Amino acid sequence: MLNRCSSGVVAVETKASTPAGAAAELASVLPASGLAAVLVFVSPCYDPQRFAAEMTARFMGTPVFGCTTAGEIALNGRDENSVVALAFSAADFDVTAHPIPGLSDFRIEDHRTIGADIRHRFFRHGGNADGERCFGLLLIDGMCQREEVVLAAIHASLGHMPLVGGSAADGLRFERSWVYFGGRAHTDAAVLLVFKTSLPFLIFSCDTCEPSTEKMVVTEADPDRRTVSELNAEPAAAEYSRMAGIAGGVLDVTAFASHPVLVRIGDAYYARSIRRVDADGTLHFASAIDKGLVFTVATLRHPVDQTSDLFAQIQEEIGEVSLYIGFESVQRRMGVEHQCDRDMSELYRTHRVFGCNTYGELYGPMHINGTLTGVAIGAPRTK
Q: N or C, which terminus of the chain has less Cβ within 10 Å?
């Protein structure tokens, strides 16, 4: 059991072997009262419902939110098979939760209903949505494939509020991910947490991709399933391997992490991560795709230097940073593992980054891949 206190937040990690043991260790270290909420990032090695029940029994006066992961970002950097918990002081934070169940039935026409409900409850709790004192944190089932429409609903109602988050994960199994709220673990669901605080904060997003000159056009796709069967009118897997220069055409999670593809939106490029390949060469993506989309093959920049520069820029803007809540793409983590995993882990440790590896990252109205996205929370400003 390890813990670290920052302004307004206590960060704790446990590697207990059972849900009961993990919850007991967290309860033994975290404050017994005076908390606005506890946020947990939970390895899929723990039974989700048992863990939720154990946490509910031990934190009866404090709401617990969170999600399952593809790895944790803990007190000593990257980790696995653990629970990372962040406890937010009620003296510095007010947290309002907005559950969004039934995502498989979520339709475009639901935007207004869901958005109006979020807006009503938010303002009822004193929110102003001006982005000066509030930020949103969205946790969503990473297997639901509904990130884009849910973000659209939230952005339509609270468009001026800074928003970050992540798609819950299931290790590298890509089978079933869970979101924690209301004393239970849920699939096919999301929860929007609105944090109101007097502390300075800044949302951020950082990738390691640089566009090359190699282009591919999606010529056959199933947007609902996020699958691509043809690129440049050729079988997708073979054409992707050829254009990305993957030796031997061996496609696995390591190859996908090392050879991302980008889409251009406005003047910026965003990664589209590939999750897996079917026997017939169909590629499964982690975020929205469509026929006619143009992919650009990416090259990877040095991630440690770039991330270190980002942290320096954030500190210049908001002053001393107490901690970062980070959502890091599992593909980014795997890509870094083959370059400089120890250095990146040390960078996270020294800058107090806590969070998890996800199946996708949420930044403003965007569902993106291949990034480190999150919120930096500053220290109290001196008067």
A: C
pLDDT at 131 over 50: no
- Name the residue with higher pLDDT: 329 or 127: 329
Task: Indicate whether 28 and 129 sit together in one domain.
Answer: yes
> Is the separation of the CB atoms in 263 and 273 below 8 Å?
no
Block residue for tokens 């691509």:
228
* Mean pLDDT score, 256-285: 91
CATH of residue 284's domain is: 2.60.40
- 369 and 329 Cβ atoms separated by less than 8 Å: yes
Rounded-to-integer distance, Cα 38 and Cα 196, Å: 15
Instruction: Give, as one character, the DSSP assignment of residue 249.
Output: G
How far apart, in whole angstroms, are the C-alpha atoms of residue 191 and residue 219? 35
Is there a contact between 36 and 7 (Cβ–Cβ < 8 Å)? Answer: no
Based on the domain organization, do 68 and 94 belong to the same domain?
yes
At 109 the three-state DSSP class reads: helix
Strand 83-89 and strand 9-14: the pairing is antiparallel
- Name residues whose C-beta falls within 8 Å of residue 139's C-beta, 6 or more positions apart in sequence: 65, 66, 67, 165, 166, 168, 179, 180, 190, 191, 193
Q: What is the DSSP letter of 108?
A: G
* Residue 212 clears pLDDT 60, i.e. is over it: yes
Q: Quote the DSSP letter at residue 172.
A: B
Q: Is the separation of the CB atoms in 226 and 285 below 8 Å?
A: yes
Residue with structure tokens 């993506």? 285
Rounded to whole angstroms, how far apart are CA atoms 122 and 119? 5
Q: In this structure, are residues 166 and 330 in contact, taking their beta carbons and an 8 Å threshold?
A: no
> Which DSSP category does 380 fall into?
P
Q: Where are the beta strands (DSSP E) in 132-200?
A: 134-140, 163-167, 179-181, 184-186, 190-197
| The residue type at 182 | G
Q: Look up residue 95 and give its amino acid.
A: V
Structure tokens, 130 = 């001006």
Domain count, the chain: 2
SS3 333: helix
Rounded Cα–Cα distance for residues 229 and 218 (Å):
8
pTM for this predicted structure: 0.90
